[in-house]
Amino acid sequence: MPIVSIAQARSHVRVEADYPEEQLQPAIAGAVDAAQAYLNRRVYEDSAKLAQARAGYPAAVKAAAIARDQALADAVFILNREERTAAIRVAAVAFGEATAEADACIHGVVVNPSIVTAVLLTIGHLYANRSDVVVGAQAIELPNGAKSLLRPYRRVMMP
């Protein structure tokens, strides 16, 4: 079961059952992705999937470390200083991204009504505003919108 189903999205944006799924699916995926990005953690459908993600954490970190170490070992043989520095930076960035993704998984959260509602609000916004421009109306962010629903579950990242 996905975090938000096509049926839930159709009902929320008040379209008929025959409304094309391929037009709603990107909004659902984008809304879920935006929620996870704001939370700095992954959202799982149930506790079993969260436990599975947590179980994969050591292997994910180990694979990232092995890839980084191999890239650094390969960089030693690059003669050009700028290219070697670039290769080292790429290895560091790739390792950082891999460990950040692993951290987002291990700090995951099981979906709850607040997260579902925030995702539905975002889907509704994406459906109602299909372009980047608002014509003839003043655009404001609602004070009790998706972010206020997600904020209690947000993992704050400190440098």
Tell me the helix content.
Answer: 55-70%
Low-confidence stretches: none
Q: Roughly what fraction of the amino acids lie in strands?
A: under 5%
Q: Roughly how many Å is the radius of gyration?
A: 20 Å
From the spread of the alpha carbons, the general shape counts as elongated
Largest sheet, in brief, is: 2 strands, parallel
Summarize the structure.
The chain has helices at residues 6-13, 21-39, 47-55, 57-75, 81-106, 113-128, 146-150, and strands at residues 43-44, 109-110. The protein is mainly α and 159 residues long.
Task: Please write out the topology.
Elements: H1 6-13, H2 21-39, E1 43-44, H3 47-55, H4 57-75, H5 81-106, E2 109-110, H6 113-128, H7 146-150
Parallel strand pairs: 1-2
